[in-house]
Design brief:
Radius of gyration: 20 Å
Order of helices and strands: HHHHHHHHHHHHHH
Number of helices: 14
Shape: globular
Number of domains: 1
Low-confidence stretches: 1-5, 126-133, 331-339
Strand content: under 5%
Helix content: over 70%
Distance between the termini: 31 Å
Largest sheet: none
Number of strands: 0
Structural class: mainly alpha
Mean pLDDT: 76
Length: 339
Amino acid sequence: MVDNPKKRIIGLNVVRVIAAIGTFLYHTYHNFDCRYGRLDYVISQSTFYMTTFFVLSGFVIYYTYYDKPFFSDSKYIFIYIKKRFMAVFPEYFLIYTVLYYIFRNNSSLKYDIVAFPFQLTLTYGFEFYGHIINWGAWFFSLIFMCYFIAPYFINMINSMDNKLILLSAFMCMLFVSCGPYLQVMIYANFFMRFYEFYIGMVLAWLYLSKKESFTRHLNEAWKMLTVIVLYIVAFVAIYFMQIIIEQKGLNHTFLSPLNIIMVSGIVYMAAKCEGKLAEAINNNYVISVLSKYSLEIYGGTFFSSYIYATWFVGKYSGAGLVALAFFFKCDMYRVFGSV
């Protein structure tokens, strides 16, 4: 068992913001046909931003709950599941209701009877019947299922020896990297997202256990510079590799090997950024607000993309659609700010 006093990791906030903005821009690109010049090759790589979110979520969940006795005192696990469920369900249910009304003609009573139990319990990721009303539901479903299985992962990590923990993380990275090349659909695949979530948990274990020594010799400025360099390397590599995979007729998931490696390095090094400089950046109003409501940004991005693509795509274009989507999500932040 690792031993470290709890503290808030402010270095991760900027990572949350970049991933949330990237997801937002991807949906303006994908659903609204907005174009950003050469940046399209980076913005269209939504796999990078979603991988960031799942790895980051795994990191935060392990860091927050690693010392809780989930399997020796049942009250902890019930409180945890209730809290995680209520963090996701209110926003999901409201927007799901809106989408169901909009796309109700695409459904039938037979489909609804099969799909509703899955959709209303956030287990949509396990529903294979082909229900097509709620496209964005996979995100809410998979993040909740990651939360649901997290106590088991925590117990497993805390029970294994160090080498086995690192080996298990390496195997997860291998599965995520090889998935697209084995013709496995990984984007909304709960197994692949579980692997990414678990990798984030192992990164938090490594952060807490203090078993690596490389970053001990770096001051705060060098750690932040390392994060910046990792982002630059990631985006430059994505730019050129996205051009290549598009020329070959492949989709964005084929960059999964690059994404999981770069995201792991970014999340870990960002967590190490602690000090006055990190606090100054985190205290910026825009960074603090966007970080606080990062889950709402993801949810709002998914659902508002489909709503606006349905209602406004023929009336507005470019910046108009981006602005409409942005203001819609601002309203959602007001509604769900207390969640």
